[in-house]
Amino acid sequence: MADERLIVALDVSAMDEVKKLVEEIGDTVVYYKVGMELFYAVGAEVITYLKGQGKKIFLDLKLHDIPNTVAKSLRVLTSLGVDMINVHATGGAEMMKKAAAAIQDEAVNRGIEPPKIVAVTILTSTSKEQWKEMGYQVDLDTHVIHLAKLAQRAGLDGVVASPMEAQTIRETCGKDFLIVTPGVRPIGAAINDQSRITTPSIALESGSTHLVVGRPIYTAMNPRHASENILKEMESVHI
Prior knowledge:
- The protein is of the alpha/beta class and 239 residues long.
- It is 45% helix and 16% strand.
- α4 runs parallel beside α5.
């Protein structure tokens, strides 16, 4: 059975690319991330396709707006039947509370399992130098923990955060809090535009519950083989 802790990012913009990748990877992977590029290009078609293939879906749209707009948008997205959705923690406690409540209420109305809702803390592409340039007085690591605690108090299931902060988030928010970590790269893989990254095994050992991996898999000559190698590294971690 595939390890649901590995989420493969479908960072492409056409359905033929999605189908080719999913078919190449086969039953090795069960969980896929649909981000803004793909969702804006093809809409709910990709959700229907992945569900038809028996896959789980993390809909990564990073909602960030006034509380009522986010809540209404999440009602629509919940109706798609995805398994995880995210918002930006910087939207604030009130936005996150309304987001969580809207998802639960819509799921009950439709008689479906509510998707997990997680909050993006600070993007993994943000370096500490860039953080200072934006004028924040508090250091990046401290602010990530503050946002994680804010999300937990607002009733969210977890956060999206760099693997570099996973251990402190786990210690702060407890064992049942989800920590979804992008910025995961197998040894030898290109860093690309990520800044705060680490390997799959270190991320899991630090407390991550889900690893989001994109380019090291979908740009590989053999995406299935690349996925299997990451899964082997994950299996070596005993938590």
